Amino acid sequence: MIGIEFSLSDLAFSVYVFDSMTKYTESYCDFRSTVGHNLDLNRHDHRQELIIWLNRWGCRQFALDQRQAASENIAQWYERVAGKMLDCDREIWELNDRELERTEALYSDLFRLTASFRKRGSQMLRVTVGPTGASKILFALRPRAYLPWDIAIRRSLGYGNDGKGYVDYLLDVGQALRVLERSCVETGSSLKELPSQLGKPEATIPALVNAYIWVVHSQGVRPPDRDQLRQWAKWSS
Q: What pTM did the predictor assign?
């Protein structure tokens, strides 16, 4: 497994590249503006908006002609687990062992949920929400505590698809953020101020980290080193 570590400049570079390369931030902002800051999966309209956003974020397991069935399955899942969800203000680097155990169970249950059926020859195959879909739904529900991921990220970093793999990912990112917080303090700020300092006041810390992980580990774009940054700074003066 590759260790997760990043500097303040790594995050700044990656967030800039992420928004330049993708429409993901735009579509996520559209989604949040529609459902507000409290996604309620008891509501049919919120579930429909969630599935539309998941499609826009590359989750093809949610077939366009089967959104209603997927919505009902998500509603049933949420009815089972709503009481086990983390508090909305929990931050990823604050999660304790009990909360991580709950997260593993939530993810594992959601992972196996039916998203759609696909016809292959004479057979109808069940398609599950899967690891990518489960992570993105959890991120939508608790964007301060959870991260989305995709198959390229899992392969690059060496995590398993299951709930344990996802919790290991959260633990490693949480540890990296605790290290980063010391850098923030040294510069006279705090980790919670970072979104505003990067020009993303509405973003959560996991959203910023996701930009870095996606750019570096999914797309293979490396941030500049210190010498490159110094040269760029010299050119800009």
A: 0.95
